Automatic annotation (TrEMBL):
SUPFAM superfamilies attached to this UniProt entry: Glyoxalase/Bleomycin resistance protein/Dihydroxybiphenyl dioxygenase (SSF54593)
InterPro entries given in the database record: Glyas_Bleomycin-R_OHBP_Dase, Glyas_Fos-R_dOase_dom, VOC_core
Name of the protein in its database record: Glyoxalase
Domain of life, source organism: Bacteria
Species assigned in the record: Tessaracoccus lapidicaptus
């Protein structure tokens, strides 16, 4: 078995699609704006991330709870964390943590503008 699709609850799927593609650099796998359906993927990957409307009370409470506690809802890998921090800072992206390092590598958390904290992570080498 392999992962085919995961979902991330967002406050606005269209805005999320723009953020994840235009700002973070993901690619569109499926876009049906008339149905508020957007699926993105990383370059060269076949796993989709559904940017799902957070309109169900359980989903909304879960998303809001994680956000309030500043717990990342998603971890995104990068090969050059320093370059991504510089690029995103220049675009005015709001980081909600300082860069931190542990045995797994280095990370920083950011606000994705659609209700989630996202962690950028560069694996230790």
């Amino acid at each position: 078995m392999r992962l085919a699709m995961c979902s991330l609850h967002v406050t606005d799927p269209g805005a999320a699609h723009r953020f994840y593609t235009d700002v973070l650099g993901f690619e569109t796998m499926i876009a049906m704006p008339e149905h508020h359906v957007f699926v993105i993927t990383g370059r060269g990957q076949d796993v989709g991330l559904l940017l799902e409307p957070s309109d169900h009370p359980v989903a909304s409470a879960y998303r809001a709870g994680l956000y309030a506690e500043r717990i990342p809802a998603l971890v995104v890998g990068t090969d050059d964390l320093d370059a991504d921090i510089e690029r995103l800072s220049a675009q005015g992206i709001g980081f909600v943590s300082e860069r931190f390092t542990d045995a797994s590598g280095s990370s920083i958390n950011l606000d994705d503008t659609v209700g989630n904290i996202i962690q950028l992570h560069e694996a230790a080498r």
